[in-house]
Amino acid sequence: MGKRSYKRMKKGDRESRKLWAEGCREGILAPHVEPYADALARSCVTERDYIRWVQNEYHQLIPWELPDDEEPPLPLPEYDPKVIMMAEELTAEESEHKSKVVARKNKAIRRWLKYRVRKLNKRFTPTMDLEKNPYSALLAKLSGVKPPPIRARQGWQQFMHERYTEDIAPTVEEEWKTKQAAGVSSKEKNDAGFRAAVARKVYSDLPIEEQKRYEKLAKDDKKAAVAAYKKALEEGFSKTPEKRQLCLDKLAEFMTPILKGVKDMTGFNWILVGGGPSPALNGEISTVHLNMGYNISHTPLFWRQWDEERFDTQVIQFLREWLETCFTKEEKEAASLHLSNLDDTQYTIDPTGHVSEDNDGSDASDSGSSDSNSDSGSDANSDLPSSNEDTDTDSVESNRNSRTKAKKQNRAPKRTSSKKRKRSEGIDQPELPLPSKKKSKKSSKPMPTATTASALSRSHSAAPSAISATSRISEYERSRDINIERNHLMLAAIEEKQRQEMVNKGLDPVAMEIPGAKVTKKLVAKGGGKKKAAKVVVDQSMCRRSLRHQNKGGDGEGGSGAGVVLGVDGNVDMQNGERFCPPDVSD
């Protein structure tokens, strides 16, 4: 760095207090910039405690009555926080003056540190040059952005890229037939190297002007790819609901190697917990937790698997209650994916059963909002165990029946998409009947929201939850019940397939346990206990353990314990990209 072309003004000649810490004072404060930045990131209490430490060190080394333009005697003594400063004999006027000087200096020290922390953090903000940002490539992976090619194609590669089918493929076929007729050794193959050699030969026969044109096209493609990459990086920091949902979908894939590296370097088991308005749930509060590391029990378990009910109530439910105080109603609505972004969605039905046409793709009702006027201890939209122990038994049974009926109605989502096709063709659709007041039992059952296969793929299977005393079911609960039913059907299909394989092998499927699932029979009373029917219950814990050992890749019980469990509201456990069996839910 070259010398300044001007001589800096002396501190005593300046009219302002700018650069008051220049000199030995800066030597005292500069080492505290990064620790102060860390304290700021932690909490206001940590910041307050640390700034007091810095201020005490400054005042012990620099006398309060020394002007800023004068340097203290050097070398400065070592700071000892245990030293008790002797009380000065000051008059009332001098004591008041000292208090003002010290208070003003404490504010100046705080401003000095905060300014340098902002300058320090500015280097890593999205507003800087994305190519120089060390975090941009990492965040690009989370948003699904692929980096541009490192080098531009060569001329013959561009020619091969654009004209392979028309000009190169026939020549490759002819050359290979000629080679086969002359005799081909075992090492010679019609591979990429052979095709590249043919492409170079064809390219060399082109006119010079044509070759230069392909070279220019290759450079232009490289520039376009870099420009598209920069634009994608800028859009990657976008806060649109679509981008947020995309990042949530890629979160497990993105964080798995990071958590595994941190676990290997620290020896700790880690869990990443987050929550907020979920775009896929129309802005309702949801949580995500990722685990890295097992315990050392006979069957290694993740944190939630160790005690699911306790985890859901004492961790997730407590987190959800706090998250409800973190976001305004406007923020929840802004995070919602509008119905126009859901494939084949035609209309939305209010949970009470009233139909509301939704042609413009906007939400027809706010009944599924997280902002409820109810003061009940349990949340009707929550999939977690309810904290309300005073739930009436009759209300619970009626709600169970309505939930079962809602599941049966939600088994045919294709009917909605066919109605939309008819609507697009100009065919009038009959209006859905409104609930009748005379038939209260039938009309009180909630009608399902039109849900598509793509929307189902974004939903998650549900954890066991206590049923709320209210008969209103949110859109999230209906989607959850659909996934529960689908997973139960999938388990039944797997069980039937295993039974059939055992029959084909000449084994008795009744006398032997099915691998991965223990099947028992229970007598379930129906119709007030007058009739009894056998109900097959699948021991989900065995199936869960079986899948976990399969996913561990042969590590067995003494494996490394590395894997990620992704849970949304405690509903989904994923390890290495595989889905565990859903918990058993009694209807």
TrEMBL record:
<feature type="compositionally biased region" description="Basic residues">
    <location>
        <begin position="402"/>
        <end position="423"/>
    </location>
</feature>
<feature type="region of interest" description="Disordered">
    <location>
        <begin position="348"/>
        <end position="474"/>
    </location>
</feature>
<feature type="compositionally biased region" description="Polar residues">
    <location>
        <begin position="449"/>
        <end position="473"/>
    </location>
</feature>
<protein>
    <submittedName>
        <fullName>Uncharacterized protein</fullName>
    </submittedName>
</protein>
<feature type="compositionally biased region" description="Low complexity">
    <location>
        <begin position="364"/>
        <end position="383"/>
    </location>
</feature>
<feature type="region of interest" description="Disordered">
    <location>
        <begin position="544"/>
        <end position="587"/>
    </location>
</feature>
